């Protein structure tokens, strides 16, 4: 039977926030505990982060430790998951180099995620070539480990599509080496794209609208209390709107029925709360205080585990070192298959002139 292998990753460009948590981290912890997978890899994509941060290596370097601490704090178990650093696996670069021959420039130009990023970074006139190639390198990330399941956000969909195109081309030209991969998306729209606390499209560090997993309780409180809601909901008695209302989007992402029994027993579930809000007569602060209790309940154990791991930084580095070594071993095995398939394993076996 085909093996079920998870490969996923994050760019280390800062600490992780609750958008990362509901978008993929929480899911990864659940997946690691299902026991359904033959292998789980989480890659810290420092090489990819450098494609648009070439001038800021210190930021990437520090973020690797922060992101690893966030993983461990969120409940990733280093006994069950191999965490590794992308740049420590040179086979990834090697494979990406060959994949570049299987993809056209116009194909990458059509990638909607790359298009958005180019706009966001004002790269239009001056796209770093390495940045432009990162979707191809991401195909190498996934396939070098024979990844078949990629838990990730919707913005990664075009990368998986490209990966599978490359897999098909590779297999057609050189013989069957790789399997196609499948993306595993978050289970609801709120988790897919958690807005910032200001209600803006996406939580992002540059917009300053994030709640970080490592934010202290007081900071979370202040951020939740000042969240964007419905600007037309002026009096408590006014009917409120849910669309674009960050508090309700966060409730969609975090709230379970049991939270009502515990913190807001006048309501059975989120639908009842939403109905009351849209009818009018329910104040924003009441909703925010409910959300805050849920957030603190979720984040407190994460903060505690992080504080513990921060005291054990040498162990954290050891986890990364061992993970990266393992990734190299696995990567080298795959590259041997690849070099053989591509007929570039010159010193293994026969190599003659044709008669
Ligand atoms: N592109 C991903 C991000 O921006 C990071 C990443 C790199 C990744 N390689 C990957 C994700 C492979 C999934 C699979 O966060």
Structural class by helix and strand composition: mainly alpha
Question: Spans of 5+ residues with little confidence (pLDDT < 50)?
Answer: none
The helix/strand order is EHEHHEHHHHHEHEHHHHHHH
Q: Report the CATH architecture of the largest domain.
A: 3-Layer(aba) Sandwich
CATH superfamily of the largest domain: HUPs
Strand order of the largest sheet: 1-2-3
Mean pLDDT: 95
| Rg over C-alpha atoms, rounded to the nearest angstrom | 23 Å
CATH class wording of the largest domain? Alpha Beta
**In percent terms, what proportion of residues is strand?**
5-15%
Report, as a whole number of angstroms, the end-to-end distance. 42 Å
CATH topology of the largest domain: Rossmann fold
Largest sheet: 3 strands, parallel
Give me the count of strands.
Answer: 5
- Helix content, binned percent: 40-55%
Unique ligands: tryptophan
């Amino acid at each position: 039977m085909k093996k079920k292998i998870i490969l996923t990753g994050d760019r280390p460009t800062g600490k992780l926030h609750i958008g990362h948590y509901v978008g993929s981290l929480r899911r990864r912890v659940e997946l690691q505990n299902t026991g359904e997978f033959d292998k789980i890899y989480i890659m810290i994509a420092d090489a990819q982060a450098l494609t648009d941060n070439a001038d800021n290596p210190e930021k990437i370097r520090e973020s690797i430790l922060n992101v690893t601490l966030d993983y461990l704090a969120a409940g990733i178990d280093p006994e069950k998951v191999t965490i590794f650093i992308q740049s420590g696996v040179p086979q990834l670069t090697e494979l990406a180099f060959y994949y570049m021959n299987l993809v056209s420039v116009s194909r990458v130009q059509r990638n909607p995620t790359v298009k958005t990023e180019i706009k966001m970074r004002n790269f239009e006139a001056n796209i770093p070539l390495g940045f432009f190639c990162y979707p191809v390198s991401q195909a190498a990330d996934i396939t070098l480990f024979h990844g078949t399941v990629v838990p990730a956000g919707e913005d990664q969909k075009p990368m998986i599509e490209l990966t599978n195109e490359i897999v098909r081309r590779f297999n057609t030209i050189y013989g069957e080496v790789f399997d196609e991969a499948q993306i595993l998306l978050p289970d609801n729209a709120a988790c897919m794209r958690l807005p910032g606390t200001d209600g803006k499209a996406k939580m992002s560090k540059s917009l300053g609208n994030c709640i970080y997993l490592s934010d202290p309780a007081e900071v979370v409180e202040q951020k939740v209390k000042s969240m964007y809601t419905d600007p037309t909901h002026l009096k408590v008695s006014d009917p409120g709107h849910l669309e674009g209302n960050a508090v309700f989007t966060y409730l969609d992402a975090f709230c379970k029925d049991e939270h009502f029994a515990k913190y807001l027993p006048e309501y059975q579930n989120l639908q009842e709360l939403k109905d009351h809000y849209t009818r009018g007569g329910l104040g924003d602060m009441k909703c925010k205080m409910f959300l805050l209790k849920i957030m603190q309940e979720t984040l407190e154990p994460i903060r505690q585990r992080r504080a513990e791991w921060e005291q054990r930084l040498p162990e954290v580095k050891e986890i990364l070192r061992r993970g990266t070594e393992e990734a190299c071993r696995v990567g080298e095995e795959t590259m041997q298959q690849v070099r053989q398939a591509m007929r570039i394993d010159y010193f293994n076996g026969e190599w003659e002139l044709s008669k």
